[in-house]
Amino acid sequence: MSVVGCAATVDGERDAGVKNQAEWTMPLDEFYVYSPDLDNYAENLRMAPCLESEGYEWPVPWQNTDFPQPADFNAIGFRLFTPEIAETWGYEFAPPADEESAMLWATFVEKADRHIPDAEFQIVFDRCLDDARAEDPDFMQTGEGINYLMGLAMQADQVVLQDPAVVEATAKWRACLAPQVDFTLPEDPRTGMPPMEAERVWKSEGGIASAAELRDAVADADCRESSGLTAITYERNWEEQQKLVAGNRDQLERIREEAVKRKVRLLTIVAENAPAAP
Prior knowledge:
single chain
């Protein structure tokens, strides 16, 4: 399980200090203000007129600017894995929360990708991107805030990974699951499951879990619960993130304040340039 993105909030604020293991809420969550997808969407809208004037089709579609997460991700884009999720989707991804928005974007990306073999396209793209950013110096994308947040989360996770209680629980998870599956278990169940060889055992296709995959995923999730691995990993991550929030509060507050202002600017750009909702 890992952080793969960040989701939008309604007003730029998150409730702090509320534990929820099933949703894997953490102390750092309150500083994630909006999804990087909003940055990407606004930038594509700003570039579209320039690219189209150069003869490239760039039909940026309507998007749900809340960028809601599917059922197997939490509000900041951390992938979840519970017995309920395992029973429903195995290790596959859940469907998009807003299927229409996702479908429209996938269609746009497919059309945009057709330009990649064009040797001139990258030159035009870079020029249009520079022009879009030059129109509004404050619009320049920066990942510093997100990188800082993710860096702190990884710092906490590295401490937790070496915690004796987590190491012990991991050994119990392995002893529980190994007799139930026909593949070698990884050292770190959070980042190594499922291993590549499992696909050959399951023969799952098209993003749909086979009966074998569902069986092994449920066994995995149940073993994480019974071994105490999920609970101790969650509690220790919470503790470590609390320490990091306390020690970096001033910087984190600045990151949140800047992100709230940027979100307002991005939503203004979208409102001025996006097509109407279907």
